[in-house]
Amino acid sequence: MTLFWISSIVLIALSGVLVALPFIKKKENNDEALRDELNKALYKDRLSELEEETEEGLVADQQELIDDLKQSLLDDIPTEKQVSEHTQLNPWVVIIPSMLLTIALSYGLYAKFGAAEDVQQWQQVTSNLPALSKKLMSPEGASLSDDEMQDLTLALRTRLHYEPSDATGWLLLGRIALANRDIETAIGAMDKAYNLKPDDPDIMLGYAQSLMMSQEEVDQDTARATLGKLVQRNYMDVRVFSLLAFDAYERKDFAAAVRYWSIMQQMIGPQDERYQMLARSIENAQKQMGVTAADGKSVSVTINLAPQVKASSGAALIVSVHRADGSPMPVAAARYPLGSFPRTVVLDDGNSMMQGQKLSQLEEYVVRVRIDSDGNVATSQGDWYGESQATEMGQAVEVIVNTKY
């Protein structure tokens, strides 16, 4: 409110100057002086006319007419009393009432028709931005009421108006818009954040999430490309694979959806309550493909690295299941981000590679695990690998990666 009072005082002072200006710059040659100058000019013109008329013989008594003209001039000159009465008017008699009237009208009309309460509430909400942001980011963030969400949005917009280069602020505004299903605002805010920090993983994820909600195919393609960059960077976040799985399922790419949901299962582990929900999603996608895991048969593989194994963060983990006779052609295989170890992955018929041969049909098998360092599955030079013993279907397998090609 300080700025409001300063601005209003400056405007009222300016109005006062405009009111007083005519009195301050009042000229000394008032109306009476101007009238006197005009009478003199008329007198001289009339004298010239009388001389011409006398020369032409039109005037019989020139002097009498001149005397009458002089008398008329004297009668038109104001008296000293009239001049003093006119000049005795004090300019402050006009200036002070005018200023008081201006102040009364200005603040009175603003109090009646202005938005003083709204401005005050807006400034209060803006000052409360840190507290609202902290509450939103806390575990209890979902407890924010609708009014608090609106206040937080208003405060964020105000801050971003003055600090448009705040990428974190745009990200937070985009997340709020996504929570409110305001897709247009979410995409706009996330786009600004992405342009400011295109390499920030959290911003990339939020940007992709907002574009996934768009109905435009171009936006959805951009979202897939952005999520793909995160996967290539080995950004292990369940939300990335959840978005990819949802998108794949919507596009009826059920095999990809199963693959992404399986990765999510491995990331959260069986103890997480979401594990069974993902299992149902996988089962549903497999039904859509006409694939079922016979009697629920699957291969659970626990993987660990030997101490001497060194792998770059950009490497990939390839797990393949082969017939127990040592056939090089895998019956089932899956590719995962490297992640951390030890870890457990699960393969089932959704990972089958051979037509007419399902993983669940095997009675015995061996599991091979390879760390692919160059991204090309056809080359193995310099890669680390490990292999299990022949195992019967239904038994857990443990593989230690300890050998280098």
Automatic annotation (TrEMBL):
Residue ranges annotated for the Cytochrome c-type biogenesis protein H Ig-like domain, each copy included: 299-399
Stretches of the chain forming a coiled coil according to its record: 24-53
Protein name, UniProt field: C-type cytochrome biogenesis protein CcmI
InterPro entries: C-type_cytochrome_biogenesis (IPR051263), Cyt_c_biogenesis_CcmI (IPR017560), Ig_CycH (IPR056412), TPR-like_helical_dom_sf (IPR011990), TPR_CcmH_CycH (IPR056413), TPR_rpt (IPR019734)
Example GO biological process: cytochrome complex assembly
Superkingdom as given in the UniProt entry: Bacteria
A cellular-component GO term for this protein: cell envelope
Coarse class of the protein's main subcellular location: other
Residue stretches of each TPR repeat: 167-200
One Pfam family, short name: TPR_CcmH_CycH
Subcellular location: Cell envelope
Keywords: Coiled coil, Cytochrome c-type biogenesis, Repeat, TPR repeat
Alphabetized NCBIfam families for the sequence: cytochro_ccmI
Source organism: Vibrio marinisediminis
Residue ranges of domain Cytochrome c-type biogenesis protein H TPR in the record: 119-275
